[in-house]
Write a structure and sequence with these properties.
The chain is an alpha/beta fold. It has helices at 28-37, 55-65, 81-86, 113-138, 142-148, 158-164, 177-184, 197-209, 217-231; strands spanning 8-13, 16-21, 43-50, 69-79, 91-94, 99-102, 154-157, 169-170.
Length: 238
């Protein structure tokens, strides 16, 4: 099952789903569409690399994942609204160079003094829900999390996040392309790891395609990683 929403992608295998969030968190309406894509999924694996985005949408996705997100992996950034989503996971992992960031929810408003006051007041419940999600997941005092939601951006690297209980495990990144090439050229595959026909065809296509010129390598890499996580399924070779 696929969708065209920019910031998320779902792959379903029966009652299991793999969810990739790889861009800025969009609207609540997008989150509701995500809920439809996850309908019937009993377990969800989450892969996330997001600069944050729409805070109410982040809260909605957290609600959708609560109780069924078994593992979440932070591959690069998990900032702002994305951290609310992350806290729905039973187990949280991250790569060594991943970072988390917390700050107060923001909004834009143009109007009179009353309009501005109402807009400011609307942010408080959002901040409280976020703080409650983090506190419940980590066991940290809610006052601590509230402190991260004031005074600008608060960044945590992988080791800091693990020490605080924001992540449970730091895992190594997969092999780099150079390491993969070394392994691929090391000799014949053992029967247990023999390549499938589609795998051979795909690798031949990549070699024939050659170098790729992109406008934004980091963004392209994130999108490619999301596609690989969704579309590459491991099979038993006989």
């Amino acid at each position: 099952m696929e969708n065209e929403i920019k910031w998320w992608r779902v792959k379903r295998v029966g009652t299991h789903a793999v969810l990739n969030i790889f861009e800025q968190v969009g609207t609540v309406e997008n989150a509701l569409e995500l809920g439809e894509a996850l309908n019937g999924a009993e377990t969800v694996d989450l892969w996330i690399d997001s600069p944050g985005g729409n805070a109410p949408a982040g809260i909605k996705v957290h609600e959708l994942l609560a109780g069924r997100c078994t593992v979440a992996t932070v591959t690069n950034r998990c900032f702002s609204a994305a951290t609310t989503i992350l806290m729905a996971a039973k187990t949280i992992r991250c790569y060594p160079d991943a970072r988390l960031m917390f700050h107060s929810a923001t909004t834009s408003c143009m109007g009179n003094a009353e309009d501005l006051r109402l807009a400011a007041d609307s942010l408080e419940p959002v901040n409280e829900v976020h703080a409650a999600c983090v506190s419940k997941r980590t066991g940290l005092p809610i006052e601590t999390v509230r402190g991260w939601n004031t005074g600008g951006d608060h960044y945590f690297d992988a080791e800091q996040a693990q020490a605080l209980g924001l992540v449970d495990e730091i895992i190594d990144r997969p092999e780099t392309p150079a390491e993969v090439a070394t392994v691929a050229d090391a000799g014949d595959d053992a029967p247990a790891t023999a390549k499938t026909e589609s795998e051979k065809l795909f690798l031949d296509f990549l070699r024939a395609f050659g170098r790729v010129q992109v406008a934004d390598k980091e963004k392209f890499t994130r999108e490619l990683s999301a596609w690989l996580a969704c579309e590459v399924n491991e099979t038993i070779c006989e």
